[in-house]
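User: Hi! I'm working on a homework problem where we have to compare a predicted structure to a textbook description. Could you give me the structure for the chain below?
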Amino acid sequence: MRSSHWSPMKPLRRAALLAFLACSATASAAPPKTPSKKPTPAASAKQEETVLAKDVRVRRIAPGVWLHVTEAGGDWAGITANGLLVEDGDASILVDTGWKPEHAKALLAWAKDTLHRPVRAALVTHFHIDRTGGIPTLDAQGIPVHAREDTARRAKAEGNPVPQQRLSDAQDFGPLSVFFPGAGHSPDNLVVMHPASGILYGGCFIKDATAKGLGNLDDADVAAWPASLKREREHFPDARIIVPGHEQPGGTELLDHTEALLKKKASN
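Assistant: Happy to help. Predicted structure tokens:
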């Protein structure tokens, strides 16, 4: 009998080998999987934003801290301004009041009816209308609005709504800490820290990351501003999230950016 090297196992091995080669070729031809793209902070913020009116919106930026954004009309049409709504137990505190009474009305209603923490007090960081415009609504509802004496005096002289309660240059205010670092964007500008979250609300004293200049300088003290910024850094060294008066929050690079803009202005 002629010997043969064939055995019943050989076709099975050949089939398995072919199957393996086919799978390997398919795997090689398939494009590599890319990890799912995480949403950018800006995209996440947009998704979480709540629209209260066509010109008023809010979004949560830390536990117990909400950013409110209001949009101007009239001479300042299209310009948005930031402020905070900060939870304080079963109530909340409003920091800056929007451009006009209707903005404050929407914010107060949302805090009461949706957040279930009605505003018990407010403070304004300087005398300009993007900070003080909503004061008449708070006055009408018996909610005290606090500011430095200089802010009240300047608001009255400007014909803007006037806060009736007073703040010192450095004090705690519920869960917040307020500080007057010195003149900058305006002679009276306060900054506000929420120590529990590391959020520093710089208002118009701090510029956003996209700012190409220092903004409205009608009431600014550009010469004093750098030293004021240094005092702010020293007073609140633990700030991690910075909220400017306009546009998007960022990190401590916003302080560096503001300082760089001041140096550029001084060199011109």
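For your comparison, note the following. Residues 9-29 form the longest helix (21 residues). The chain has one domain: 41-267. Good luck with the assignment!
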